[in-house]
Design goal:
six-stranded mixed beta sheet; alpha/beta; globular; 12 strands; about 15% strand; Rossmann fold; 11 helices; disordered N terminus; six-stranded parallel beta sheet; about 40% helix
Length: about 375
């Protein structure tokens, strides 16, 4: 009986030891996201992978220099759609065309400990804040700002290409000579890049003469319309051949002034595209005939994808160029369409897969 009893005690001790080991294993330290040994900020681990479900619930800050016009609205729509797909929450901050305020908003977002920060436009004033964010392991994805901060991913449109596309088409349409009006404003990275192409074009085409130039980022469409009206009075019919506008808000204002004045001999060539812009270009009575652009909704989506690549622990390229396409009235149908339908008529428009990774498919099935 004593031997049997000792056997039972030995078995019980072994079972107890196994139970203790199991409990200890289950109680291993976890990160804030709940995954053992995996950082929720996407820093590299032994296997360099993060369970995609741990990326849900991230707080994303979008800091914008301005949110003027339908292009910006559709860009924000793309950001919102993609953040929602990843299961995150988006907070927008708008600096109302004040670059110093934008830098302050960036600092505020860092102090509020957002998981990722997206910026839209701005300039070198952002660099101090971007460095601060990166030092705190907050991924930052910049759109359309000339900044140089190691660790920050910078997205830009192919601005020089867009300018070249519109300028060369304008040259062809006007027979290589004529008087043109340029609508442009300094102080914005995309505008500056477009101006580089314009300067090169002007030197190569002396028979195309710039007779007036203006532009303001404050109420750009209304300001352009007012100034274009004055230019039209200064130069009567036959003295202006075309208008080249470095931004769709400028093209809108110029086109409205020209149409209202009945100056049908003047054509407008712009850059950027939104649903409102497309309606104007499709209107045969409107002087705006073409634009080079990247789908603004796609820009927002791509920017978010690169943010989540960083959160996932990937190491994406830090200079990302978004390819543009040329949209002209002749390629469009008679019926009114939106930019979501534009890919049916213009090759290369919309539905960009740029920045998309196979592991992102998990988000589409984990809802």
């Amino acid at each position: 009986m004593n031997i049997q009893k000792n056997k039972k005690l030995g078995l019980g001790a072994m079972m107890l030891l196994v139970l203790v080991l199991l409990v200890t294993a289950c109680g291993a330290p976890k990160t804030e996201s709940g995954a053992q040994g995996t950082s929720s900020t996407g820093s590299n681990t032994t296997d360099a992978k993060t369970d995609s479900l741990n990326l849900k619930g991230k707080r994303v800050a979008l800091i914008m220099e301005f949110n003027t016009g339908t292009f910006s609205q559709q860009y924000v729509q793309g950001v919102e759609e993609e953040v929602k797909k990843f299961g995150g929450t988006l907070t927008k901050f708008v600096a109302d065309n004040d670059k110093a305020k934008m830098a302050s908003l960036l600092d505020s977002a860092i102090n509020q400990q957002f998981d990722v920060i997206l910026t839209d436009h701005g300039d070198a004033l952002l660099e101090t804040g971007l460095k601060k964010a990166i030092s705190r392991n907050i991924p930052v994805i910049v759109f359309d700002a000339a900044v140089n901060v190691p660790g920050a991913v910078v997205l830009s449109q192919d601005d020089q290409s867009m300018a070249e596309l519109t300028l060369e088409q304008m040259k062809k349409d006007i027979g290589g000579k004529g008087n043109i009006v340029k609508v442009w404003v300094a102080g914005f990275a995309p505008m500056e890049r477009r101006q580089v192409a314009y300067d090169k074009f002007s030197k190569a085409n002396p028979d195309i003469k710039e007779i007036a130039t203006f532009g303001s980022a404050q109420n750009p469409a209304l300001d352009t319309q007012s100034k274009m009206e004055a230019v039209l009075k200064q130069y009567p019919k036959g003295e202006i051949t075309a208008v080249w506008a470095a931004w769709d808000e400028f093209a809108k204002g110029a086109a409205r002034a020209i149409q209202q004045a009945g100056r049908t001999e003047i054509k407008v060539y712009g850059i950027d595209m939104s649903d409102e812009d497309l309606q104007m270009i499709q209107d045969p009575k409107n002087p705006w005939v073409a634009s080079a652009a990247v789908d603004p909704t796609d820009i927002g989506r791509v920017q978010v994808r690169y943010a989540y690549q960083k959160l996932h622990g990937d190491n994406p390229e830090e200079q990302v160029v978004l390819k543009a396409v040329y949209v002209q009235r002749e390629a469009l149908p008679d019926k009114q369409i939106s930019t979501s339908e534009l890919s049916q008529y213009v090759k290369g428009w919309g539905k960009s897969e740029q920045g998309y990774k196979d592991w992102m498919k998990e988000y589409e099935t984990a809802k």
